[in-house]
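Office hours follow-up: a student asked to see two folded examples consecutively, so here they are.
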Amino acid sequence: MKRIIVQIYEIQEPREAERLIEMGVDRIGSVILSPDMLKAPSVREVVRLVRGSAAKSSLIPLLAREDDILRALDYHQPDFVHFCEWIPLDPGKSAQRDAVCAEAIRVQKRVKKEFPTLGITRSIPIPEPGLTDSASVRKTILEIAGTLEPYTDDFMTDTLRGYGGEGAVQPVAGYVGITGEVCDWDLAAALVDACRIPVILAGGISPENVRDAVGRVRSAGIDSCTQTNARDNRGRPIRFRKDFDRVGRLLAEVRKAGRNSGEDLSRNAR
């Protein structure tokens, strides 16, 4: 049985990275939020700590300029770069979708040329459950994946708020992710079935639902961000601060799901 990858985002502080390494998290993700923090010392230290462990590091560069992305990767030297730009799914936006995918391919090819050993993760937007004509959207999602797969090392699902929604309606304008809400697991499973590269399931993954998610989608791994964050006194997630009790419960549920199956749960794990 292959180990299900457990990835935890958004880790910006070395002390949190150390704790996650001790807990046995497989991938630890950080974010470059703007050009002003391109050389954030704390993020570089997170990547350095992960490099000296059995875990892998992943870096999301929320940077518009290609040269800034390359500078960030050269400075931090992560194991994976994670691109999560919004890709429209609306059938009426096929030209815009094709343009976004073409630009993604161009950037990813340049990144691979500059950093041949760097893994490239690409987010694939998956709508929330029950919002869409699933057959039409499934076709679009698989077309996007088929276009990007030759230039990508693994995919990650990310929940798209509002079918046909503009990038601006997402939590971070122009990108997908950190909604804290689950995506349509049937569509995610279709993506897993269709791909030859690993797929990591993200979108509202929590200690409470991860066993169901693993069983239904059977992805190579799972990712959790918002649902393993600490909470304020109103119960709202605090960005960039983890609740390690919830992370521990998440890990336990994933490992339990793997042990109980007695077989390789993942359809496409390497």
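And the second, which I mentioned at the end of office hours:
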Amino acid sequence: MNGSKKMSKVTFVSALFDINRVDGRKWDEYLKWFDITIKLKVPMVLFVSEDLKTFIEDRRENIPTEIIVQTVNDIPYYGLKDQIQEILDSDQYKKDMADPERIECKQAMYPIIQYSKFPWLTQAAAMNPHGSDYFFWLDAGGSRFFEDYDLTQNYPSEEAKKALDEMGDSFLVQMNTEYYTDLANADTLSTDYLYDNRSYVLGSMFGGHKKSLFRVCDMVHNVLMNDMIANKTINNEQIALGYLIKKYPDEFSLYERTNQKHMALFQELG
């Protein structure tokens, strides 16, 4: 879109579409948060509806940005909408699932967005318009957890970039060990966890070296299709990541939150 074409070590990826949430959260709230999120001084790839293109261009005039305009039908997992909604509406699903009143257990478009984060990440990495080695997902509404971060600074910090290099080609996820210590400390988690409502990892921000994205995306896809949908169930992407971290620990680097900040990983890289 704009900004220079020079190489940048890190690219952030996000997306925003109006799915008419059924839980009362309004589109205007998301626009307010997104307005701040996209002011973050880091190269971005943004997947959005046509009506947001000018909104973004006005706010990122001098920050390297690639805008990918899509319709709702273009969202990577949109083709599963009817199949997922049928699962969510079934009596057996409501019986088996912990806390089936969660939005991801009621409205198919919500988990579709959650799981589409991963193919959006890999699409951004395949395009790599900013010549980056590392790619991070950041929720469009992530700014509500920025706290007092100074948006005039370049992000992430130079120290954080060095730490990413030391991490190698693994996938970085924030783990909230203080909430569900039994899950965080477990050596393994069975597929029973896919019916749980306790998320011990953060889904608002994650990522890593471009080599890791494709491996993790394939793993998440397999959990979604073969462990969840094939068994007539669906749960959020945090549950899928929590399950995979225990199954393939060598693929992940875990940042253990040591405070009560929801998105402590964001501050750590700032």
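Two things to take away from it. The first strand starts at residue 10 and ends at 16. Residues 115 and 237 are 6 Å apart (CA to CA).
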